[in-house]
Amino acid sequence: MVRFTAVLTVGLVIAGCSGPSAAVEDRGRDPVTDSRFNLSATEDFDERPYEDSLAVEFAVSHDVPDVLMRSEAAEGITTARTIQGYRIQIHASLERDAALQVEDGVTRWWNSLATEERPIDYRPDELPVHMRFVTPYYRVRIGSFEDRESAEAFLAFLGDRYPDAFLVLDSITVYR
């Protein structure tokens, strides 16, 4: 019982000491306007004579064109980005020569088309044709499409010439 009373007394003393202090009453005071924190009477540094020497002039040099620094893209200035897009695979072969022939044939076919015969939403001067070797096949893919809808429209245009063609996801480079 004596131990219990001693522990209880010590606990009450600690609890009593840990209560709010007088600093709680100062919460509403502003240290800038409070006279206890006003240092203007003791501060005697005048920065006015040093204003000219504190100003530092410097020039920044970089390789970025001024037109890009102003965020104004001028004619002829483009940036390239690689994004996930679509291509149309028209051929896969174990032989490189067969893939090269298909690549040459699709390029000649595209160049023989008049501009009016090409799809309205896809009329580049040169059709992007890519031959890629992924073991064990040489794959011939055409186009660079940012969205699936335009790739499907072009696939429909190719339907008669390349009936076995299909869409594939691929990394494409876009210029803006």
Question: What is the average per-residue confidence, as pLDDT, rounded to a whole number?
Answer: 78
Question: How large, in whole angstroms, is the Cα Rg?
Answer: 38 Å
Number of discrete helical segments? 5
Corresponding CATH architecture of the domain at 80-175: 2-Layer Sandwich
CATH first level of the domain at 80-175: Alpha Beta
- Low-pLDDT runs of 5+ residues are none
Distance between the termini: 85 Å
What is the number of strand segments? 4
What portion of residues is helical? 25-40%
Strand order of the largest sheet: 2-3-1-4
What would you call the shape? elongated
Strand content: 15-25%
Run of helices and strands: HHHEHEEHE
Q: What is the CATH superfamily label of the domain at 80-175?
A: Sporulation related repeat
Main sheet properties: 4 strands, antiparallel
CATH topology of the domain at 80-175: Alpha-Beta Plaits
Q: Structural class of the secondary elements?
A: alpha+beta
